[in-house]
Amino acid sequence: xxxxxxxxxxxxxxxxxxxxxxxxxxxxxxxxxxxxxxxxxxxxxxxxxxxxxxxxxxxxxxxxxxxxxxxxxxxxxxxxxxxxxxxxxxxxxxxxxxxxxxxxxxxxxxxxxxxxxx
Length: 118
What we know:
By secondary structure, the chain is mostly beta strands.
């Protein structure tokens, strides 16, 4: 976490510094994607922050989350029959804990997320 974002402060989501690490090999289906996140704080039992995924294809097991895409493009596919999500800047999406997904990122994707605190 880079620290709790205090009230009356604004940051540009696209400029939040992230340390990217390669996606674990057992989750990579194509390319050489990396991801990174910075938790900015929490309020009312909800954590919020910025997350990024570079181009490539990877699998994930989701947490409860709402997010807004601020940059990039991707498709998220589900193994439970939900239709795929087409993500572009401005997209608002919700995922539920336990969903199995495949992320196909064609342009580095950056999102601002909100998820219940652990």
